Amino acid sequence: MLQRIKIIYENNKIWIYLINHLIFSMLFAILVILVDTGIIPIIDFIPDVFKTDTNLSRNILATLAGALLTITTFTFSTIMVVLTTYSSNFSPRVVENFLTDKVSMKVLGIFVGGFFYCITTLLFMRSILPDSLVISATIGVVYSILCIIYFIKFVYTVSASIQASKLINKLYRQSYDMIDKAMDYRKKFSRIDSFDVDQYPLYFDVHAASSGYLELINFDGIMELIRDVECKIIVKPYIGDFVSKNMHLFSVYYKEQSQLPENFDKKLYNHLSLTGQRMTLSDYKFTIQKIVEIALRAISPGINDPNTAIHCIRILGVILGRIGESEGKYSSIQFEDCKGRLIYEDFNFEKDLYDTFYQIIHYGKSDLSIVLALFEGLKIIMHNCSEQSLRGTKKFAEYIFDRCHGFHPSDHDILRLQDNLKEITTYEYQFK
User: Fold this and answer.
1) How far apart are CA 63 and CA 175, in angstroms?
2) What does the domain layout of the chain look like in residue ranges?
């Protein structure tokens, strides 16, 4: 249930922020109206400096309402321009990064809430005597100052967001933190390169009942489900994979039918969360894909910005170096006093390395600066990864050389590539 709430929140984060500010503005407007009309008799205890007559209040609130509506329209137009820039210059996948930025979500909510406050209090101003003093205009002025502060912050955020380096670094931090947390969680369990199921005579498969992207797996819920069951469950898809209806999700190997709870397959399936689109909630590969797409767009003939692509490759090297610190291909998850075991393939370094770089190699193999940057990325990886991952890095360096050296027939280019290859393949692992 908690997983589904997280997904609903991520999918509707923009609306939640907007509704929250509208509700706050509505409650604040009701409170101010009750004070101004005398229903809450505290107006006499408020200093006169904060009070204005009703005619002045009407003028101030009307002016603020028009100004806030104008700024809201301008802000919306700015957001659309930034989204177009993101989609055309970077990748359509990074559009959500700007939309879900806290400043972007808050600024519209604050402006719309301010407009709502001004219109609402202006409407109820007719029920107040002309010679009465009110505080609604003063509150409106304070609210408008807050709007100006957020507007300045929004302008700064927009100017920073359209810079490629800022966006790449933001994606890097998001990806690295996600990988860091996941690897810290996996440290509680053993890492293995292979597994066997020979000791379990019975098995069955669990298939998907619907289609979508696998976003979350409730490992704790699954382990609680198999606490008293001698079994081994193999999770087939990765988080972030597209799952089609009737696709193979789990293989359950067990000893006795009587140990399995009733409707075990359905209960197991309910611990998965499928979404209509990929999300960055726990899908570290999606954040890596965004950086890869920025690099691909940068080396395309239409943009031709190899330095941005080189920066992306270096960042990818740092991320993959963190993944390379992990040994093994599978996480073998088993809690204390739990008879069942869960096998999940994640942080498979060699697979992640290939999936990250193969598109960049394909489209950038004729650009020597990109090829040299790929070797540089591998050097970043080899200084941080484990001994097992180092062997995979050396093999991948040979793969890059084989794919790319034919596009650079010059002796100088070949010598440069060979030097980089030799530096990687002769590197000796240093115990960390």
Assistant:
1) 45
2) 2-162, 171-186+283-326+348-425, 190-275
